[in-house]
Specification:
heterodimer, A: alpha+beta, D-Maltodextrin-Binding Protein, domain 2, 3-stranded antiparallel β-sheet, 12 strands, about 45% helix, B: MetI-like fold, two-stranded antiparallel sheet, 14 helices, 2 strands, globular
């Protein structure tokens, strides 16, 4: 009898202890305003370092990308238990920078309500969003989500987001935004569901000193002559290699010009009837890439890989096709002040991040206010530019900031030889962007295309075989796309 | 008599607490393991996918998902079949050297004639690679064999290859390195299992063979190998199950950033990587179908091994 009592006591003690433990853990979770884990830190940092502007689904450096493959934990800041919490989801700290740097002073009341969920890297962002959308009662269910160009249509087409019009944001509010950012976020039913605070026109970043050395000029207008069309780019690549005895090459790898070619397309990856379209520009890109590789005119680096990062340093590479956010985040500090921007063969854009309110948004007014601040309010957006030099998506804000020199760590990024500020340079480029080239399936289809281009360039497959394999893979991935 | 019943009663009472203590496991198992397992079967018969961001469920389908596992839209073998092939190739090239080396080490480390000094230290050392996280090893090897990797540079300096992307742009080297990582990580584990198998053999058999003048090779062929059969079967089947589900190392080694599939040209995409890709692109029904096929393949292969390698002697003895 005694034994039995002791046993029961022990058992209940154990259960109470276990329950107590889990309660404590829960409390801790609730209490902590900032739950940080090493994994999240790493993921967040590496993304910020490599892409900061947060504008691409390509992962950063090989190794960090691999680290991110282990599902990173969410890093939550703010009080998620408050009844009036406004939950914002993003895969890095980009929007948080704006919240802490600008919103805090402009609207402290809204600032105090913000709960920021940083999912730690792009790789699992979509998975995490898909899960949380199915769980509206979760206290971390987002009111506002950030969406990247490569998959924005997947969400604006779906049913999880509110129309911008339903938030009380009108045409007049976003009339100062660049049209392409509106086009991109408008789904196939004609509904606008997201707005962006940044515009991302592309350019070619040229090392002024190397241009002086090998092209004989560092005047942007004259350098542009060397990049005026694709034939000129090819000739320039040969010239640079020859004159430098191979010590400097034109490009880090052929993948660097992929986004430029994609900007030259007439169509996205498929039309409204789901027929796959391989634009002539993409076919030309394959041949052009092979030509560059066969003659070893680049370092064959993989974009975002560590060899890619390495070849941007020193005097290895003369030209780096980039864009507005690339200029602040991907260029290396040791070469600041030695960069000039030229147009290259054709206009293009690269990436961009949009904000949208969710279907289950608890406070539409607060969400609308937040989105309006970041994407419609010229004063607010001018402050974003003042803080991080981002090229903001508002013509009025750009007008007020256009004479400011773009700085990073207090250093001017562009060379004096540019003859204009960064904003002045990009101002007339934004109009050339076609916002209708994006499809909901871009991320996977572009990835499948890259794989086959690599096969063709490496000489493992003929062009026809590579395209056939690409079509087969697309059909396998998206049954509803007709590959013809 | 009376005391006996009380005793019996007591043990039954304690048993009840036992059930309480094991209940959490079974509850967790039912909710998080068994139900998802059953649900996978249900999903595999549903035409469910994501189009433009909306989930579409076209209802029950008996064959659509399963047909797509075997045949692509153009009538050729499907990507799923290719990934099964990749997995098999990578596993076989890891398993054959692994079992050979492990056998050799197991025999040497247990041989009473050799009496190797520091056998314990060796056992620890062969097991060490398994202690490191697979993810770290995969990343380590990728940086060694990547375009800027030290080993790539060394081999290039020796003039054996002329291209710094040799290891990551060609199917054979990429698969070979993944096989090697698997082999290197798991041979220690296999060695320890085989050692315990060898130690389980009655030493008097070895003594008798020594007296009869057997050579080491004869002992190995006629005593060690046949007596090791049950443990070899165990090693083979567990390695097969693990190998068919191979995911962490190939998915971190040489992959396309956007799709997460193995480079070059899917040569290192394993079945589980492909299932992950299908889920990521919203093909839930087909992902479930591939998972079910993977389960069936594992089951059939395991049963086959048991049938063909099972302990026939024992059965014969029992009959006799």
């Amino acid at each position: 009898m005694k034994k039995r009592v002791v046993c029961a006591l022990l058992a209940s003690a154990l259960i109470v202890a276990a329950a107590g433990c889990s309660n404590n853990e829960k409390k801790d979770d609730n209490k902590s305003t900032t739950t940080t884990t090493a994994a999240a830190d790493k993921g967040g940092d590496s993304t910020t370092a490599a892409q900061g502007g947060g504008d691409t689904t390509d992962a950063p450096a090989d190794t960090t990308a691999a680290e991110e493959k282990k599902v990173p934990e969410n890093e939550v800041s703010g009080n998620a238990d408050a009844a009036d919490a406004v939950v914002v989801w993003m895969w890095n700290t980009d929007v948080k920078g704006i919240i802490d740097g600008v919103l805090k002073d402009v609207d402290p009341e809204l600032y105090n309500r913000i709960v920021y969920v940083n999912t730690g890297g792009t790789d699992f962002y979509q998975d995490k969003l898909d899960n949380i959308f199915n769980d509206p009662s979760n206290k971390l269910y987002p009111d506002i989500v950030a969406l990247e160009a490569d998959y924005i249509l997947k969400y604006t087409n779906g049913s999880n987001l509110l129309n911008i019009a339903d938030l009380g944001i009108t045409d007049a509010d976003y009339s100062k935004e660049y049209k392409y950012t509106i086009d991109t976020a408008t789904n196939y039913k004609g509904e606008l569901k997201a707005l962006s605070w940044q515009a991302c026109p592309g350019s070619w970043t040229i090392r002024a000193s190397l241009a002086e050395k090998y092209l004989g000029t560092s005047d942007p207008a004259k350098v542009q002559e060397f990049f005026k069309d694709w034939d000129a780019v090819y000739e320039t690549a040969k010239l640079v290699k020859e004159k430098s005895n191979g010590e400097t090459l034109l490009l880090t790898g052929y993948e660097d010009i992929k986004r430029v070619w994609m900007g030259a397309r007439q169509n996205g990856w498929h039309d409204a009837d789901d027929n796959l379209i391989i634009d002539q520009a993409m076919l030309d890109y394959m041949d052009y890439a092979k030509k560059l590789e066969d003659e070893k005119l680049t370092y064959s680096a993989t974009q975002w890989g560590d060899d890619w990062n390495a070849k941007k340093t020193g005097d290895y590479t003369l030209a780096l096709p980039g864009c507005t956010w690339y200029t602040y985040w991907c260029l290396v500090e040791e070469n600041f002040g030695d960069y000039i921007l030229v147009d290259g063969p054709q206009p293009y854009s690269w990436g961009g991040t949009w904000l949208a309110a969710t279907k289950g948004c608890a406070d539409k007014d607060a969400a609308a206010k937040f989105i309006k601040y970041l994407t419609c309010d010229a004063d607010f957006m001018a402050k974003i530019n003042a803080m991080n030099s981002d090229y903001v998506n508002n013509t009025d804000a750009i007008e007020t900031r256009k004479n400011e020199v773009a700085l990073n760590n207090g250093k001017a990024i562009l060379s004096d030889k540019q003859g204009s500020t960064l904003i002045q340079y990009y101002m007339d480029k934004v109009g050339g962007i076609n916002g209708k080239l994006i499809t909901a399936e871009d991320s996977a289809i572009t990835g499948l295309f890259d794989t086959q281009v690599k096969e063709y360039v490496a000489g493992n497959k003929s062009k026809d075989d590579a395209i056939a394999a690409f079509k087969k893979n697309v059909a396998d991935t998206y049954n509803y796309i007709n590959v013809g | 008599m009376a005391t006996q019943t009380v005793k019996k009663h007591k043990t039954i009472e304690y048993g009840r607490y036992g059930y309480l203590f094991i209940a959490p496991f079974f509850i967790v198992y039912l909710v998080f393991q068994l139900w998802p397992l059953i649900y996978t079967f249900i999903l595999s018969f549903q035409d469910i996918y994501v189009k433009y961001g909306d989930e579409i469920n076209d209802g029950f389908t008996l064959t659509k998902n399963y047909a797509s596992v075997f045949v692509a839209n153009d009538g050729t073998a499907s990507m799923a079949i290719r990934t099964f092939g990749n997995t098999a190739i990578i596993w076989i090239f890891n398993f054959i050297p692994q079992i050979l080396l492990s056998l050799l080490l197991a025999v040497w480390l247990t041989d009473t004639k050799v009496k190797l000094k520091g056998a314990g230290a060796f056992k620890v050392m062969v097991y060490l690679p398994n202690v490191i996280t697979a993810a770290s090893i995969s990343i380590l090897f990728f940086s060694m064999f990547g375009p800027n990797g030290p080993l790539t540079k060394l081999v290039m300096d020796l003039g054996w290859i002329d291209n710094n992307r040799f290891f990551i742009d060609n199917a054979a080297p990429t698969r070979g390195i993944i096989s090697f990582i698997q082999f290197w990580m798991w041979y220690g584990n296999t060695t320890l299992l085989l050692i315990s198998g060898v130690l389980g053999i009655n030493p008097s058999i070895f003594e008798a063979s020594d007296i009869d003048g057997c050579t080491g090779w004869q002992k190995f062929i006629h005593i060690t190998l046949p007596m090791l059969r049950p443990i070899m079967l165990y090693v083979l089947v567990t390695s097969l199950i693990g190998g068919l589900q191979m995911y962490d190392i190939p998915s971190l080694f040489n992959v396309n950033m956007n799709t997460g599939r193995g480079m070059p040209d899917d040569a290192s995409t394993t079945v589980t990587m492909y299932i992950r890709f299908l889920t990521k692109t919203g093909n839930f029904g087909r992902a479930a179908a591939v998972s079910v096929i993977l389960f069936l393949v594992t089951l059939i292969l395991s049963v086959l091994f048991f049938v063909f390698m099972g302990d026939r002697d024992k059965k014969a003895k029992k009959k006799g």
